[in-house]
């Protein structure tokens, strides 16, 4: 690959990897952690569609968060006794919490069979509230 193509590619990749700015003391920050072989993205904040991959920093107070969680599930047995390829399952998880200013939070999720399990955690990793499954399936 010619060198003239490598420089723009390197600049593009480093632009995506910049760190987040420091948290302002009058806001709360919510991170997302879906572990391996899964993907989690911000979906709704207080009923409004979020058009980013993560939530914006939140003013303190009660907020409703929804995330789109996509994970891999094992394939099923086919008619000839063969196991089909793993599939992706998509679910919407929701939670409500009274967020405190200056605090960092994290929404974590994992799969338990075909069902997702999610929690809101504080910066110390303590579980604060369990997320509810709003819906799962195609078109989610």
UniProtKB/TrEMBL annotation:
Protein's UniProt keywords contain Signal: yes
Keywords: Signal
Annotated signal sequence range: 1-24
Protein name, per record: Lipoprotein
